Amino acid sequence: MNKEFQLHPEQASTFAGQVDLLYFFVIAVSVFFMALICVLVYSFSVKYRRKTPDQMAETQAHENLLLEITWSAIPFALMMIMFGWGTYLFFKVYQVPDGAMSYYVVGKQWMWHIQHPTGQREINELHVPVNTPIKLTMASEDVIHSFFIPAFRVKNDVIPGRYTTMTFEATKTGTFHLFCAEYCGTEHSRMVGSVVSMEPEDYQRWLSGGISDETPEQTGAKLFSQLNCATCHSDQPGARGPSLNGKFGAEETLSSGDKVVVDEAYIRESILNPRTKIVAGYQSIMPMYQGQVTETQIFNLISYIKTLQATQGAK
Amino acid sequence: MNTISAPHSPTEFEMPREHFLNATHTVKSWLLTMDHKRVGILYLLSISVFFLLGGTFASMIRLELATPQADFMEADQYNTAFTMHGIIMIFFFLIPSIPAVFGNFVLPLMIGAKDVAFPKLNLMSWYLFIFAGAFGIATTLLGGVDTGWTFYTPFSSTYSNGNVILAGMAAFIAGFSSILTGLNFMVTIHKMRAPGLTWFRMPLFVWGMYATSLIMVLGTPVIAITLVLMMLERGLSIGIFNPKLGGDPVLFQHLFWFYSHPAVYIMILPGMGVISEVVGCFSRKRVFGYDFVALSSVSIAVLGFLVWGHHLFVSGQSIYAGMVFSFITMVVALPSAIKVFNWIATMYRGSVTFDAPMLYAMAFIGLFSVGGLTGVALALLGLDIHMHDTYFVVAHFHYVMVGGAVTAFMAALHFWWPKMTGRLYPEGWSKLAAFLIFAGFNLTFFPQFVVGYLGMPRRYHVYPEEWQLLNIMSSAGATVLAVGFIVPAVYLLWSLKNGKIAGSNPWTATGLEWILSSPPPTHNFDTTPIVTEPAYNYGKPIEIPVREKESAHV
């Protein structure tokens, strides 16, 4: 309440300044046109004010092609500049930088579950090291939410049934607002939290003091055995399911003849609803896990599957 | 050729002995009327009730947001308040406002017709609207609905505890009223124009109504189907939108905005038509660039169907689709810009007065331009990531919907009030109200641009403390705005008995509606007028009504 008057939120990511620059350009163009419109309307009202009730207009001129072209072409050209600029920024923010730290986010009415690459979990708080590219992979347990960090100028919807991602790199340490931006029910306005950006050493200290028990890979390995995944998914000859070793990122041929890249979304789909895309040469016998595993458990399973190395000589 | 501006004579300042209002008096004669003018009046009364109701919900929202904490409403009550505000204002005020009231009242008069093409269907539209309204009122009385007017799935179809099906039915039925009105107007414009009234001699309001009707007829069935699917999923758990049932939640957003973005143009195109009439009349000049203004309405109607994806830039839509939708949105902004420049050029070297309709028209030009320019900002992909679902969006569409559509409705109401009632409203009070609405509106919604860019998400019941000052400004403005709307309600009702007799053409306007007595006779034209000149032929010397000569002040 006592902060000085601001026109934009704090710029705390590599992206923020770039967004604000475009914003100020758009404001400048808008102010120019509003000033033009106001000055013209005002001066015409004063200058051509009707002084006697029977006063006619000075002219009935009502056509001028050159004028029409001018006041179409100039705004259009300006809009094209803005369009190109905005699209450039958009494509840029959707590029995942190499070596980004990978976090998982699950939204559910009305809280954010966050899991760090090293396994720490937290609720409604996201601790990140400063000056490090971060990638969030996000899913929802129920309705649509939206993960919004104004100080970083990033937002993306968190949608049930699919993964969305977000990347950013904090440039300042500090605590910043985290909001749910998509209306999600009763406590929507309390589905808020904070993003804490820390020096890397502080982040390491925070991690070791945290509630770390096991990494997502370890949790995933346990689940993998609890759910008896390995019974079918193995390198053994005659295994009923395709081996998962070394498959992450590789291409598989489906029974339909199509090809698919084994990524997070494909693995998730194959766990929840395996019948959709069957690998060529296998029967559709895997049970559906829809409703039996949580989004967080799926994240852990994916983390584990990513670690499986191809075995020598195996197919 | 004088069919269009008939000279006044002193005796004209008497009410016509018989007109459509006093031709019959029974309630039945109103409820079973086939007269397009009476149907227009029925709509005016009904939407005024809904405007009051929607405005009450708006006041509750602004009262709650005066402080950052929850004060007099629970979270669920707040969510219900903004949802009901949206549903009522959009489906029961804005969409029917200008088309169903003034489209019905003046469109047949403007084209020299005795009625719309299908008078019974026209009455049926009103009954459907009232039937839908009953569902809307029932929703409110039974505790409301909390999905937001957008009914996003799977929240609406699975998780919400509100009266979703009842509210969905209200919007579903109201849609049919809209389709029938659109159909009626299209046939009327095609088939019932007076001899000589070629397409490019039509008043621009008629062009606006034609474009609006196109959208109503082509777009509304899509929202009807979408709402049915949503209600089926809620009632019967068929999997269309809920991923747990095998559906896709984003599919709903595509279908919803395929109608609801064009619906924005249903709300603004008629308003643009009104502004063209008013600016021409009160500048006493032919509307500049008539062809461009007319065809821009049609191009908005067509292009408006191709931009829905700009509501989904951060909703999991492909980034390449985002690029295409962003580009088309830039293109659809252009016809609006063309209109604004042509209205201003119409004032150039005109004979300009500041009667209430013109004040509202000038307010429209300014406020709509702000709405349009901020719309361009939101359509930029890189900026929308940050602005999407914040108060910046709320401010933007209120500049278009209230600053644009409602301001144009007020312009139309004041412009045609003398024609509808035969009476003038008090000039001084009308100017005061126009000023209050303009000032109150800006105070309410301008701070929301700022707080939105700072990051305040929309539909928030509680918010961080640092944004209280901007929210207080907004709530204070809403108070001024409310007073601004109460004042006209009072003086317009007062004028029904006490206003000066208007005469047939108080604004010395061109257009066929102004050659009729005020109020017009039931069957409009005794003989079908023949049109031999373009619209807005303001180049002829004007005979001023005697009363105005006595008090030369305008």
Description:
The complex is a heterodimer of chains A (315) and B (554). Chain A is α+β, with helices and mostly antiparallel strands and 315 residues long. Chain A has 2 domains: 1-41 and 68-212, Cupredoxins -  blue copper proteins (Immunoglobulin-like, Sandwich), CATH 2.60.40.420; 216-312, Cytochrome Bc1 Complex, Chain D, domain 2. Chain A contains 6 helices and 12 strands. A 5-stranded mixed β-sheet of chain A has the order 3-2-1-5-8, covered by helices on one side. The radius of gyration of chain A is 28 Å and the shape is elongated. With 554 residues, chain B is mostly helical. Chain B has a single domain (38-545), classed as Cytochrome C Oxidase, Chain A (Up-down Bundle). Chain B contains 16 helices and no strands. Mean pLDDT of chain B is 93; it is low at 1-11 and 548-554. At the A-B interface, helix 1, helix 2, strand 7 and strand 9 of A face helix 3, helix 5, helix 8, helix 10 and helix 11 of B.
The percentage helix of chain A is 25-40%
Sketch the topology of chain B as an H/E string, one letter per element: HHHHHHHHHHHHHHHH
Q: How would you classify the quaternary structure?
A: heterodimer
Which whole number gives the mean pLDDT of chain A?
Answer: 89
Largest interface: A-B, 91 and 101 residues
Total domains of chain B: 1
The strands making up the biggest β-sheet of chain A line up spatially as 3-2-1-5-8
